[in-house]
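Final paragraph of the annual report: two paired records, presented back to back.
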Amino acid sequence: MPYLGNPAVDRFTATKAASVYSGNGSTTAFTLEHSVGSDEDILVSVDGVIQEPSVAYAVSSGTTLTFTAAPSSNSGNNIFVYYLFRTIGTVAHSAAQNLSAGTGSFTGDVTIGDASAADKKILFDGNAQDYHIGLDDSTDSLTIGKGSTLGTTTSMAIDANGIITKPLQPAFNVFPASDQSNIAINTAVTVVFGTEAFDQNSDFASNTFTAPVTGKYQLNVHLQLNALDTAPSLYQLQIITSNKSYNLTLAPKFASDPAYYGITNSVLADMDASDTVLIKIYQADGTAQTDIVADSNFNGYLVA
């Protein structure tokens, strides 16, 4: 069977045990016929006298033998180099080829990149989903994201000033598109939020926020009310989640119907993935005259 792959270095070549040179009284550097790894890998004799490694001579770049003092110019070959050990071949990994290994450990610093103007990343090659962490050179930021391409689906970015942003972190802020006039009495009225200031991760729709993952969500609502009635026994602002309703109750004791009144409720709510939350207001008895003004707002975000 023929030999496969690159042939081993000097596989069928007889190598010399020694090299001979002639001194001229001025030359100090000679080229070895075999590469060696250290000064002690050769035995050097000049005019029959054994030379001390690293004192009388030194080897650099594997094949350059340099004497401290130039050998004499005695007639004939008066310098003998005996190879005790030699470097047969070395293996160098090509920068243009991928490096693959099962496991590995490092005891020192690991540098990724060469200071050039280019993105650098570590790719986690998953079965169903890939992730990456790397330097986005265009923004000078460290990014963590989904997929194999840097910067396409970034979950977190740290810029040169240490500022952390989370472009996909669930967060929203919504407003009524118009006033909601003369709310009904003795019924929980859903507050209509028709305008989105922002809806990061697209979790808000049809007056409802849907939790994309299980976690703790900060929820805040402020209703600007006009034409409140003094007759009702209570107004109640409700943050209603799938798990629990968080109610703020106001028992009005106004001398006359207020033209303007603000009411606010907030909570850090425990929500499971796919749980929903919406805002309702309840007026017990009185006259259906209260308006929810478009200056109202509802916002929230995933805390943990």
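The closing record of the year follows.
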Amino acid sequence: MKMIIFKHTADLQKYLTGHNIPDRKIGFVPTMGALHAGHGSLIAASKKDNDITIVSIFVNPLQFNNPQDLVKYPVTLEKDIVFLLSLGVEILFLPDVEEIYPEQTMTEKMYNLNGLDAVYEGAFRPGHFQGVCRVMDRLLNIVLPGQLYLGQKDFQQVMVIRKLISLLDLPVNIIIGSTIREQNGLAMSSRNLRLTPSQFEKASIIYKELNWIKENRHSSKFSELKEKAVQVLKNNGMKTEYLALCNASDLFALEDFDDSVPMALLIAVFCGEVRLIDNLLL
């Protein structure tokens, strides 16, 4: 199986036009590299549903509010290419920064996300989701997919991108893949590569505490369960940045459990210097 690597927009679009591939049968999996089984599950779903699957690898500088996070972001391109070949991916789009942002106006564009970018991740990472929207605006208009495959692990980001697609009025369906986890329950993430073996094991407690809250939601208030869960994480050397209960359809914060609406738990935790996020639908 051959995989074609494109670095330039014009070449990719010429290829897609020349091969007469219907837009609605293009599956797209955008990534920032350091690929793992979570990405693999999205790629497998795309290959099942579409005539062609396009994966992009682009570490987007505009979504890093902390410059040190960008410097430390793991780059494993050779390994990623071997991984994509093993999965039978047809096309890898591998642009540089100048290709994605050829004009200054693109890096300054703003999107009205109705507050989705101001809470949880957005509150602690100002500008992050505007950066996500800028890169997805470019990528979606370059690839023109029918189906876009995203992971539930980045739950708030999925909601933001869904809003972006609505704003741009693009005929793109979002398919959300389940969070893929390590054997100890830790959500798979490129950031896990930065954890020491000891931190990797301790980080498994994040998912355990989310499940503990879910299991006890009918017997205690959320505020009480939250306090206990945060303390357990603290006792294991982790600092909780936020642990929130929200309406899973609009991210509106809930003070307590409400079975009349879809609910989700969202969490961000520092394990050493590594910031980890997770979520659980209730």
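The chain is about 40% helix and 20% strand. This concludes the annual technical report; the extension proposal builds directly on these records.
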